[in-house]
From TrEMBL:
Pfam families: RelB. It comes from the Bacteria. Signal peptide: none annotated. PANTHER family: ANTITOXIN DINJ-RELATED. Belongs to the RelB/DinJ antitoxin family. GO terms for biological process: DNA-templated transcription; regulation of DNA-templated transcription. It comes from Candidatus Caccousia avicola. Keywords: Toxin-antitoxin system. This is Type II toxin-antitoxin system RelB/DinJ family antitoxin. InterPro entries: Arc_rbn_hlx_hlx, RelB/DinJ. NCBIfam families: RelB_DinJ.
Length: 100
């Protein structure tokens, strides 16, 4: 038998129940998940997922009709054409608003 070591953690009971229900559907035990997670930490030399506050993302345009989207794009092109904004102004605004 492999040399193993116990890991103990206290977590929210509802979180545990919800996670274990999902793991059961996947056929993965909590112990196997911990083993896989630790293996990924070692393999990646860090967390196996992004641990940061998500940046603001632009609003999805999928809910807009083609006419609405075209109207908004025309407004932007007209603003740019009239010199209301420079390309640098637009880049700064996008970076500030959306982190891009």
């Amino acid at each position: 038998m492999a040399n193993t070591s116990a890991v103990y953690a206290r977590i929210d009971a509802q979180l545990k129940q919800n996670a274990e229900a999902i793991l059961a559907k996947l056929g993965i035990t909590p112990s196997a998940l911990i083993q896989m997670t630790y293996s990924q930490v070692v393999l990646n030399n860090g967390l196996p997922f992004d641990a940061r506050i998500p940046e603001k993302k632009p609003t999805a345009i999928g809910a807009m009709s083609r006419d609405q989207l075209n109207a908004e794009l025309r407004k932007g092109v007209e603003s740019f054409s009239q010199g209301s904004f420079t390309a640098d102004d637009i880049d700064r605004a996008l970076a500030k608003e959306f982190g891009i």
